[in-house]
From TrEMBL:
Domain FAD-binding: 4-290
Gene Ontology terms for molecular function: FAD binding; oxidoreductase activity, acting on the CH-CH group of donors, NAD or NADP as acceptor
Gene3D superfamilies the record matches: FAD/NAD(P)-binding domain
Pfam families: FAD_binding_3
Name of this chain's protein: Protein CbrA
Taxonomic superkingdom: Bacteria
PANTHER family listed in its UniProt record: CONDITIONED MEDIUM FACTOR RECEPTOR 1, GERANYLGERANYL DIPHOSPHATE REDUCTASE
Family: Belongs to the CbrA family.
Organism this protein belongs to: Marinobacter antarcticus
InterPro entries: FAD-bd (IPR002938), FAD/NAD-bd_sf (IPR036188), Geranylgeranyl_Rdtase_fam (IPR011777), Geranylgeranyl_reductase (IPR050407)
Lineage: Bacteria, Pseudomonadati, Pseudomonadota, Gammaproteobacteria, Pseudomonadales
Length: 374
């Protein structure tokens, strides 16, 4: 049996950030992931500046051999009507490719890594959690994303009654011919809201890579909504007519809809495993890394890993992200008062799309980066 202080299930942004933060703590940490890295993750790959700051990413270093697309404008609209272009005059966000970003974050961590290793069993033996009959530790971190086996162990996973966002996305490198006809601009991601306001689609060009997707709270007819959107974008010449491959699907929970407990005896859930994506935008990378840093801080402070002590993490998450019951009022699909005939007018307003949709809902500019000196 290989003994550790902490076993982290999942080497995505949440898991790697937790291990990175505990690097100087003297704790023996093992990260287990079912995939080898670099691996793909269904995601638009848009990160806010708070993520780059909090993770202390040297952007010049990162951009060497990797895609780092600065964003300085947004094109926002409602499907079927003319969009609004808002130029922010400076870099307000970034585009990355998840296969590169996640591998970069995991590579820089010195913790032990057991990749290409699906978690098949989680057993409790005395005070330890035993994984696959091989690895044991008193503290288990569930960082395995939406389908995390640790969340499942706590009774929450696929099949539980939480409302999930269903999304489909494609990312590919354009040929020279495709790039020359594609009217989408790298510095200007496009957000297109569904007319029933139950979701939105995006067209996001990152250098020569193009990412197109659509996410909805209501998964009914997701493919029909996506096909209509893609046909419309092709007809307008915004994306190439010959998209390669198929759109990949994934699901995730928004903070206001999640009902997962965050801790149990010797267990903490972070990132998507805990259901922390921002309710209005679906941005999940920032909450994933912030929850990891908050969890690491609690781990450094508690005398033991009893649920009672770990509950400090649950309290800190509520302080940072709000209590779930209260948050439910501001559902991501846009507050109720906007769900009026007024909505299509607001989506034509320069002020509303810039100040509310972009700066508040999508960039979360009103929330300063988490203090890194936790
Ligand atoms: C279509 C789509 C678009 C999105 N776009 C954005 C965006 O532009 N910006 C943004 O901020 N967020 C976006 N999100 C959300 C974002 O992708 C997630 O919030 C983020 O990946 C959460 O990180 P994580 O580390 O918690 O989980 P993940 O990144 O999902 O990592 C979990 C890891 O756990 C591993 N794992 C899972 N099960 C097991 C197992 N049984 N055994 C071992 N390992 C396991 C997986 O292999 C994976 O590496 C998007 C999501 C979707 C679906």
């Amino acid at each position: 049996m290989d003994h550790y202080d902490i076993i982290v299930i999942g080497g995505g942004p949440a898991g790697s950030t937790l291990a990175w933060s505990l690097e100087k703590s003297g704790k023996r940490v093992l990260i287990i992931d079912k995939q080898d890295f670099p691996r793909d993750k269904t995601c638009a790959g848009w990160v806010t500046p708070a993520v780059m700051d909090t993770l202390e990413i040297d952007q010049d270093n990162y951009a060497r051999g990797r895609t780092l697309q600065p964003i300085s404008a947004f094109r926002i609209g409602m499907m079927g009507q003319a969009p609004v272009d808002n130029d922010h005059g400076e870099t307000v966000s970034y585009g990355i490719r998840r296969c590169e970003f996640d591998a970069y974050l995991l590579d820089r961590v010195n913790a032990n890594k057991q990749l290409n290793t699906p978690v098949k069993s989680i057993e409790q033996k005395g005070r330890n959690w035993v994984i696959n009959d091989t690895f044991e530790a008193p503290l288990l971190i569930g960082a395995g994303g939406h389908f995390c086996p640790v969340a499942k162990k706590l009774g929450h996973g696929p099949g539980s009654h939480e409302t999930v966002v269903a999304a489909k996305e494609i990312e590919f490198e354009m040929t020279a011919a495709q790039a020359s006809v594609c009217q989408a601009r790298g510095d200007t991601p496009e957000l297109w809201f569904c007319r029933d306001l139950k979701g939105y689609a995006w067209v996001f060009r990152k250098g020569n890579f193009l990412n197109i997707g659509l996410g909805r709270e209501d998964s009914h007819k997701l493919t029909d909504h996506l096909n209509d959107f893609v046909d419309d974008m092709k007809a307008q010449g915004r994306i190439p007519a010959d998209l390669p491959g198929r759109f990949k699907g994934h699901a995730y929970l928004l903070y206001a809809h999640a009902e997962r407990p965050l801790v149990d005896e010797g267990i903490m859930l972070i990132g998507d495993a805990a259901g922390l994506a921002y309710t209005q935008s679906g941005e999940g990378i920032r909450p994933a890394i912030e929850s990891a840093l908050i969890a690491a801080d609690v781990i450094r402070r508690v005398p033991d890993v009893s649920a009672r002590n770990l509950q400090r993490y649950g309290e800190a998450i509520s302080e940072r992200f709000g209590t779930r019951a209260l948050n439910d009022q501001s559902s991501w699909q846009i507050p109720d008062w906007v769900k009026l005939p007024l909505a299509s007018g607001l989506m034509r307003s320069q002020w509303f799309t810039r100040k509310v949709v972009t700066e508040k809902w999508f960039l979360h500019q009103q929330v300063p980066p988490l203090e890194s000196a936790l």
